[in-house]
Amino acid sequence: MMENSASDSVSKIAGLTLVNALVFQEVLADYESQVKHLRQTLQAHDAISAFADHWEYILTQINYYPIFHVAHQLLLALPSNPDSERALRSMARTALDIVQKRAALRHDLMGRVYHRLLAEAKYLGTYYTSVPAATLLLKLALQPEKWNRDWSDFAELPNFRVGDLACGTGTLLMAASEAITDNYLRTCGAKRIAPKMDVISRFLMEDIIYGYDVLLSALHLTASTLALRSPEVTFRFMHLWVLPFGGAHHRLGSIEFLKDSTIVVTTDLFGASISPDQVSGTGPVRQQQASLPDLDLCVMNPPFTRSVGGNLLFGSLTDKERRPMQAELANLLKNPRVHASSTAGLGSVFVAAGDLHLNTGGRMALVLPKALLSGVAWQRTRHLFRLRYNLEYVIASHDPNRWNFSENTDLSEVLIIARKVDEPYKETPAEDNAVFVNLWKNPTTVVEALSIAHSLSSASPPDIATGQGAHEIMLGDVKFGEAVTMPWADIRDGSWMLPCAFAQSNLLRVANHLTKGNLYVPGVVSPHRILLCAIREFGELGPDVRDIHDGFGLARGVTAYPVLWNHDASFVINLALTPNQYLSPLHRAKEGRHLRKVDLLWPKAGRVLLAERLRLNTQRLVAVRTETPVLSNVWWPVRLLEQNDDYEKALILWLNSTPGLILLLSHREETQGAWVKFRKPVLSEMPVLDVRALGVDQLKYLIDAYDTLSKKPLLPFPKLATDPVREALDTAVSKALGLPDLSVLRNLLAQEPVVCLQAIS
């Protein structure tokens, strides 16, 4: 039996399906004389029977099967009682109100409501793209001048293929349809050709758009949303597929496109979770396979579920069903042509599936977690782009109210556009620049999204390294963000985070110079050289957090294993700390885990501790030092290869200085705005001050400063600009290294949204 919350959500989605059909009937009545307006149907004494009879008439005489079939079945299942009658009449009145606001119908209104009702969203990992984000993404991906085609040529246009392997309610497909239609109209206008809207609409429905999902209710809304663009056009079929997921044969939905361009049906054709149905204009097409053509544009906001923590792959299913599906997925990922990691999540897998079916010269237009830019788990996906694509756009939101581009999440996301190249791993031409867009204000309307897209399509943003300033995205007097460029050849082999690390282009340039060992301060004529090196050159990071939990438990008293446990912002206020807990070795492994040997873990304890995770808006320090070696559950112990108290103290000062913070934040993995993580492989390669290269006087100056400041409390990061201890720390670093005044950088960093959670004014 369903749990109450799930049952409640299913009932709401059923109601939404009925409202959607009622809306479509009212719209259709304006174009089809055989279709009654809602008020005419409501005149009947028995509204349920009246609507059921009329929808059956529409289905048999006019078609529109995708919209009315499921709704008709729902009506037939309603009990004959006054409550059902009153509910349906109330829905009809709501539908009339919606139709009066006709503009809402063009922006996937029903999809918006559906996203908030979907019971399976948490475990299927389904996020649904906001309409403004979809509009921005697809307007940029379908800029007509970037495609070698005549958008008005009816002989060529039907061969253009747009596919979404996780289409949900069709927001991205809808945005693609709008952008293609706009390209068609503009081309017709330029060539003085009279547009044929009925023809382009039919091409979109029957030839161009392909959508796949595992949820029938979502596909129903996709079909109706697309159909509402041109309700006067009757279509024969649509390439919208409900794919098999789970069941006795452990089906994987769109992921099975990793094997082939078709998904074969081997069982009961009438089981919705077993075999695929294609949505057509006249009914379900019972076929032995669902096909995916070679695409020109692959659009997706793929599922986000991962294989770590409680966010289980295929988490909507039971353990018995899930394990064989995970095993099948693992087998598919062994294919050398598939560059994906299930540790990153199903999003990585879906990107790989889309790549296998994308034509050379085609584009990916994706909504993905911001962790893509720097996450270790996403390295295989970045490698895929490195091998086969030129990155064209990366769009990140620095709007503290909306780090995301999906509606039902607050996780940080990015919009990605990349073009598939002719030859794998070819030399990237120098002129192939990627545009990095850092939004200060995430668009909330389609008009704002279109304005941003127009601003970017006509812009030539400056290079982050050699240029100055940024392309400012202005809508009237309101600044929506900045854009800069970076040669794809410069970043394709590593992290993509730096050009999107900060909202302010001034800070991006500072970070870029710092990675090369130069301190650039806006307003100062020339950069200052700093001797930097990777942490791994003089130190080793300690055990992974999971290893600590697999080898130890917290002790109740004093043991031989001191630890700095957690990162309490009210406790971690000084550069110098003492251990706050002790560990006790486990005598046996925890369930489902391997026992880690204490003799292998403890030698990696260190006195320098570098944050493994941070809440930037509340915490104060990224690195601390203890007098005795410790381990930690939320800090990376750093053990210097040559143990030296002076080197440790100098390193702690550098890491907490403004230049040190800028470098560290440029290497973060952003999860949810100010909630960030730092991964061991990334930190090991991160450049820091080479304390071994300091002169005797320089080192002494820094040691004296550490001894003076180590017990003084610092303020949280948002108060960087007004923190006297932070200012003294920066002054010490500046004087010891011969650097200019760092107050300008401190002020810039303090107002970064990721630090203070305030929009830049």
The low-confidence runs, each spanning 5 or more residues with pLDDT under 50, are: 114-125, 265-275, 307-311
Coarse structural class: alpha+beta
**CATH superfamily assignment of the largest domain?**
Vaccinia Virus protein VP39
Give the strand content.
15-25%
- The total of beta strands comes to 31
In short:
With 761 residues, this protein is an alpha+beta fold. The protein has 26 helices and 31 strands.
Detail the topology: elements first, then pairings.
Layout: H1 4-28, H2 38-42, H3 47-61, H4 65-77, H5 82-100, H6 109-117, H7 121-124, H8 131-141, E1 162-164, H9 171-190, H10 197-208, E2 209-213, H11 216-228, E3 237-242, E4 245-246, E5 251-252, E6 262-264, E7 277-280, E8 284-285, E9 289-291, E10 295-300, H12 319-332, H13 346-356, E11 358-369, H14 379-388, E12 389-397, E13 413-420, E14 433-439, H15 446-457, E15 471-475, E16 478-487, H16 488-491, H17 505-515, E17 518-519, E18 528-529, E19 532-534, E20 539-541, H18 545-551, E21 552-554, E22 562-564, E23 576-577, E24 581-585, H19 598-601, E25 606-611, E26 613-615, E27 623-632, E28 635-640, H20 645-656, H21 658-665, E29 669-672, E30 675-677, H22 680-685, E31 687-689, H23 696-709, H24 724-737, H25 743-750, H26 753-756
Parallel strand pairs: 1-2, 1-10, 2-3, 10-11, 12-14, 22-27, 23-27
Antiparallel strand pairs: 3-7, 4-5, 6-9, 7-8, 11-13, 12-13, 14-16, 15-16, 17-18, 19-31, 20-28, 21-24, 22-24, 25-27, 25-28, 26-30, 29-30
